[in-house]
Design a protein that fits this description.
The protein is an alpha+beta fold. 36% of the residues lie in helices and 21% in strands. Strand 2 and strand 3 form a beta hairpin. It is globular.
Length: 373
């Protein structure tokens, strides 16, 4: 597979015989609200997320998913309005709401699970450990040392391509003085592999090749399978023009199979992946960019397993509720912080709006069920 932009799969065709007389057509059915269900879980949006969608003018029927089509300029208008009149919601959108804005027409909410967060952080920590190991070698020269010391991880900080296009990766590594990261790490469920490919394409092409390596780790919630993919810039000559594209350099390599068996292999990058060659040469002319950073598939599988165990512990604690509370806490009461008037107003508004939207959805579904066609 190459790094071409993801193409949606063909939709199944429905073959029907039209009536001979157009006046025999049944009346148009009422509009249908389609409840979209993710293959792994049903997205549950909080009041802040729902409020932001309201300001973006996203209709209630679309709020059962995690990606939302918006009109041109709606994002800029919404954020300007929030900054001026809704500071609590504005602060949430700026600091807490992980989301991608794609070319001013699509907003994607990112709602990572505990496993997702755990794995991305542990992989980032492991990469830093490998860099420190290289740094500890007395054999490296001063430019190589300075290059490694300049590499920093920015987590899910926003990567801005234009004013109307940004993405928020799971992890990223960049050289401090440069605009774009050189290495991006993204995690996804295996059913989301197309969206992972599209994200890789955005990072590489929209950064004009500044992003040198996108690492994708895919897990399958219905089995023990773990897959590993990488993407890199690809420059081709088309007549008198140079064309930049995204090329898939590792294609869904199996790390752990459905029986839990771990495959042989490793994730490998070198110091040259952390920025364009010309930028490294300018900043660190004598740096040895061939030095490698490697993480074995055994380590990746171990990290994922540890994350899965943490998720299981959290799920068990949530199911147990207060039954598992330590005996020492039984005589302790909880004192909740008083909500601010702003928070109370937001909560009341959202509850009222959600009641009205739920009523509208139920009425629409009822009308659909009664429709004879």
């Amino acid at each position: 597979m190459t790094g071409d932009k993801a193409i949606e799969g063909d939709r199944p065709q429905t073959i029907s015989t039209p009536p001979s007389n157009p006046f025999d057509l049944p009346p148009s059915p009422p509009p249908t609200v389609v409840k979209v269900r993710d293959s792994t879980s049903t997205p549950v949006l909080n009041s802040f997320q729902l409020s932001f969608l309201r300001v973006l003018n996203v209709p209630p029927s679309s709020q059962l998913r995690l990606s939302f089509t918006i009109s041109k300029g709606a994002y800029a208008r919404a954020t300007k309005k929030l900054a001026a009149s809704e500071p609590a919601l504005w602060a949430y959108v700026q600091d807490k709401l992980r989301h991608d804005l794609i070319n001013d027409h699509l907003v994607i909410f990112r709602m990572p699970t505990l496993v997702h967060e755990f794995v991305s952080r542990k992989v980032a920590d492991t990469i830093h450990d490998r860099l420190r190991l290289i740094l500890s070698s007395p054999a490296i020269n001063s430019d190589t040392r300075h290059l490694i010391q300049a590499i920093t991880s920015l987590g899910s900080a926003r990567v801005k391509f234009t004013k109307t296009w940004h993405r928020e990766p799971d992890q990223q590594f960049k050289i401090k003085s440069l605009q774009y990261p050189g290495v991006i790490l993204e995690l996804a469920h295996s059913q989301q592999s197309k969206s992972l490919t599209k994200a890789a394409d955005d990072y590489i092409v929209e950064s004009w090749g500044a992003v040198q390596l996108v690492i994708g780790i895919e897990t399958d919630p219905n089995s023990k399978n773990i897959y590993f993919s990488t993407w890199a810039p690809n420059l081709e000559i088309d007549g008198e023009e140079k064309v930049l594209s995204c090329k898939k350099t590792t294609d869904s390599d199996l790390v752990r199979d459905e029986k839990g068996n771990i495959m042989q292999g490793e994730l490998t990058m070198n110091l040259g992946h952390f920025a364009r060659a010309k930028e490294i040469t300018r900043l660190f002319p004598r740096a040895d960019t061939t030095l490698t950073v490697s993480i074995s598939y055994t380590e990746i599988a171990s990290i994922v397993l540890e994350g899965e165990q943490e998720q299981e512990l959290q799920d068990q604690a949530a199911e147990a509720g207060e039954e598992e509370i330590d005996a020492e806490t039984h005589n302790i009461k909880k004192r909740k912080r008083d909500s601010s008037s702003e928070e109370r107003l937001l909560s009341a508004d959202e509850k009222d709006r959600m009641r009205r939207e739920e009523k509208a959805v139920n009425e629409t579904e009822s009308a659909d069920m009664d429709y004879p066609g």
